[in-house]
């Protein structure tokens, strides 16, 4: 029997594949390897057919394509219809469907899951395949041993725990993944795959909501998830003015951006778009410098995959020194100017 | 008059020391309880609608009996009625089972024009329950809603999308999940707390304003809720391990010396920071 593929729902905006798509494909490929299946991808939009080949280069074996004017802009109900139609065209449901934990994914995935009456795990930071034995006495109809099922792993909220969520009773097992967490594969243009166009019949009820306009201000939008270097400020920077010190340090780096802890954001010192952590963004830059951040678990889960973590904090017992790679115990207002000066010297030496 | 339902949840207060174990796990029995902060934005939107075009606002919560506290809070903010769905068989409901149970409460209330939910909860943290209620009720939804204008039976809204926003329009009935970037929370309550206390003093009035209902009352199939009705289970939990391991900490010396030693140490570990600097 041909096994069905691990499946990803691609995200594109006005013809641009979104960063989450290669991440999802990378994660799906890993799961597919463990299951001995391939990877499928749903590509929905208008005039998006040219993207199919790119998606194959990113790791898909089959692209299910719905190219329809009705899908020009993302709206919930037509996209929901398209996903459900593709699924219905398959003999068996895929074992796993992954979507992004983006404004689109979090809008669409729960509707699809509720329609199919399957489980959905939000905001996963790790995915794996494994076995599970359910022994519950309270729900005897679920008892059994299940092999090669999806382990959807996420931090349990507000707690320093990770939880493994399982839903082996019915396929597809669904999960959304956080932006910036899953690893894309290197682009391989020699990969080949199949493209299957799926016709979709929409219902007039699918068009109950109209988009009047969409405004994207890419110039103003900070994208901390793509940055190579992040200098983050916490409550220790003391105020809006303190962030000038953070900006000053970030200014000497190529491709550097300012990050922040939730306490700094909640204090109104810097916009939410800069927040790193469980309720902010997950980042994995080459270099993460934390200034005046204590290192609470909810901050840590958003940045602990950074290649190099340097912390400056005046409290030697701050938890951040337990997981940073390098630390200076001291007042950031004294340390940062010296650090900047010495790094600038290094930069000069480099350019000689 | 418009009928508005707003879903609010009682969650453990993780910012308080009470009930939060040293390892960060929560002892729900001892933890302080609070109204999910995200739901305050939904509640505020409901009251805004009531003030601008007139509406009857019912807040609904599902949880153990103490959850009735958030309904009183809802009334203090200006809601008219509160419904608590409470039933032992609801324990361990995942989002699908929760949404199933909650959509039955909407059916119990009757014809509803606007349903509001918070964006997400601070304990479940999934942002799934709102859209899943909409799916069950076959309603259009506006998620991540920041601002809302009601004209007749039409809702115009601005919602957040990656790197911008979107203006959308739809006819009622509909479901809205309210973004936490919506109007900042006002501190002024619609009616005085004392007034609500007064209002709820008589048992008759309290019973008229706040109802407690069971699965049977709302006509829900218990097999589709709780542990048995949830397609997912929590398999295993474990503590987040320490990462990085040994942090090289420089302290107790002049700042200049500490910085110099940090840079030496980075170089010795072949951590090439200079490459990341402007030339
Ligand atoms: C459900 C939930 C979700 C959360 N999500 C997030 C999230 O996404 N992101 C996030 O960051 N947090 C999140 N938090 C909050 C988190 O628990 C912490 O409260 C927060 O990260 C603390 O921010 P901070 O380190 O800036 O502040 P604090 O903990 O107050 O730490 C400030 C630090 O600055 C140091 N300091 C002060 N002055 C100086 C100085 N002059 N020089 C050097 N050091 C100085 C202090 O020693 C201290 O260690 C969440 C919490 C909960 C309950
Ligand atoms: N037990 C509950 N009672 C009432 N409303 C809830 C409950 N659980 C979730 N909600 C609503 O659904 C939203 C999203 O919750 P969640 O999917 O858990 O993140 C919340 O902000 C509430 O408005």
State the gist of this model.
By secondary structure, chain A is an alpha/beta fold. Chain A has nine helices and 18 strands. Chain A is globular and about 65 Å long.
Detailed description of the structure:
- The complex is a heterodimer of chains A (352) and B (279).
- In chain A, helix 2 (51-57) links the parallel strand 4 and strand 5.
- Chain A is globular.
- Chain A has helices spanning 20-35, 51-57, 76-88, 105-116, 242-250, 262-266, 297-300, 320-323, 332-351, and strands at 6-9, 12-13, 16-17, 39-45, 62-67, 96-100, 120-124, 126-134, 144-156, 161-166, 173-177, 194-197, 209-216, 229-233, 256-260, 287-291, 308-313, 326-329.
- Chain A is built from 9 helices and 18 strands.
- The mean pLDDT of chain A is 93.
- Chain B has 279 residues and is of the alpha/beta class.
- Chain B folds into 2 domains: 2-224, 3-Layer(aba) Sandwich (Rossmann fold), CATH 3.40.50; 245-279.
- A 9-stranded mixed beta sheet of chain B has the order 9-8-7-10-6-1-4-5-11, with helices on both faces. In chain B, strands 2-3 form a two-stranded antiparallel ribbon.
- Chain B is globular.
- Chains A and B meet through helix 4, strand 7, strand 9, strand 10 and strand 13 of A and helix 3, helix 4, strand 7, strand 8 and strand 9 of B.
- Bound molecules: flavin-adenine dinucleotide (FAD) and adenosine monophosphate (AMP).
- Adenosine monophosphate (AMP) binds next to helix 1, strand 4, helix 3, strand 6 and helix 4 of chain B.
């Amino acid at each position: 029997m041909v096994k069905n593929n691990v499946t990803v729902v691609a995200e594109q905006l006005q013809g641009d594949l979104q960063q989450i798509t290669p991440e999802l494909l990378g994660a799906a490929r890993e799961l597919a390897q463990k299951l001995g299946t391939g990877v499928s991808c749903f590509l929905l939009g208008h005039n998006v057919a040219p993207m199919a080949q790119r998606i194959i280069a990113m790791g898909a074996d089959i692209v299910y394509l719905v190219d329809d004017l009705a899908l020009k802009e993302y709206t919930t109900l037509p996209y929901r219809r398209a996903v459900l139609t593709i699924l219905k065209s398959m003999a068996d449901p895929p074992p796993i469907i992954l979507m992004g934990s983006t404004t689109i994914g979090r809008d669409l995935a729960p509707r699809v899951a509720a329609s199919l009456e399957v489980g959905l795990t939000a905001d996963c930071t790790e995915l794996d395949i494994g076995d599970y034995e359910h022994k519950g006495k309270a729900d005897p109809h679920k008892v059994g041993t299940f092999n090669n099922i999806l382990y959807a792993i996420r931090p349990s909220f507000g707690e320093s725990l990770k939880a493994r969520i399982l839903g082996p009773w019915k396929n597809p097992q669904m999960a959304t993944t956080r932006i910036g967490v899953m690893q894309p594969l290197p682009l391989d243009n020699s990969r080949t795959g199949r493209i299957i166009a799926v016709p979709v019949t929409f219902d007039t009820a699918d068009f109950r909501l109209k988009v009047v306009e969409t405004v994207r201000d890419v110039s103003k939008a900070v994208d901390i998830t793509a940055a190579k270097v992040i200098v983050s400020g916490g409550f220790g920077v003391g105020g809006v003015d303190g962030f000038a010190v953070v900006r000053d340090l970030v200014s000497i780096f190529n491709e550097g951006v300012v990050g922040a802890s939730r306490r700094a954001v909640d204090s109104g010192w810097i916009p939410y778009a800069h927040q790193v952590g469980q309720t902010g963004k997950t980042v994995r830059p080459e270099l993460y410098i934390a200034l005046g951040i204590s290192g609470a678990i909810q901050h840590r889960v958003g940045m602990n995959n950074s290649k190099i973590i340097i912390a400056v904090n005046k409290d030697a017992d701050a938890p951040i020194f337990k997981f940073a790679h390098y630390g200076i115990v001291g007042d950031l207002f004294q340390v940062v100017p010296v650090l900047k000066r010495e790094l600038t010297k290094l930069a000069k030496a480099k350019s000689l | 008059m418009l009928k508005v339902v707003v879903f609010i949840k009682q969650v453990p207060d993780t910012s308080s020391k009470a009930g939060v174990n040293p390892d960060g796990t929560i002892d729900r029995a001892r933890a302080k309880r609070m109204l999910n902060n995200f739901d305050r934005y939904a509640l505020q939107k409901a009251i805004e609608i009531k003030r601008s075009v007139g509406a009857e606002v019912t807040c609904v919560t599902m949880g153990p009996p103490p959850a009735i506290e958030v309904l009183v809070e809802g009334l203090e903010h200006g809601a008219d009625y509160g419904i608590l769905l409470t039933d032992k068989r609801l324990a361990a409901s995942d989002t699908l089972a929760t949404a199933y149970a909650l959509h039955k409460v909407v059916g119990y209330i009757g014809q509803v024009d606007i349903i509001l939910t918070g964006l997400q909860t601070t304990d479940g943290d999934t942002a799934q329950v709102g859209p899943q209620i909409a799916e069950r009720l076959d309603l259009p939804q506006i998620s991540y809603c920041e601002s809302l204008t009601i004209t007749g039976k039409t809702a115009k809204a601005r919602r957040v999308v990656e790197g911008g926003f979107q203006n959308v329009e739809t006819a009622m009935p509909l479901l809205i999940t309210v973004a936490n970037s919506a109007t900042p929370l006002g501190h002024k309550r619609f009616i005085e707390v004392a007034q609500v206390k007064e209002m709820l003093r008589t048992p008759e009035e309290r019973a008229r304003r706040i109802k407690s209902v069971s699965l049977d009352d709302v006509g829900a199939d218990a097999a589709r809720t709780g542990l048995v009705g949830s397609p997912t289970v929590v398999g295993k939990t474990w503590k987040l391990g320490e990462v990085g391991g040994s942090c090289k900490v420089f302290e107790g010396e002049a700042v200049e010396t500490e910085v110099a030693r940090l840079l030496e140490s980075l170089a010795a570990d072949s951590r090439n920071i200079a490459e990341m600097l402007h030339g």
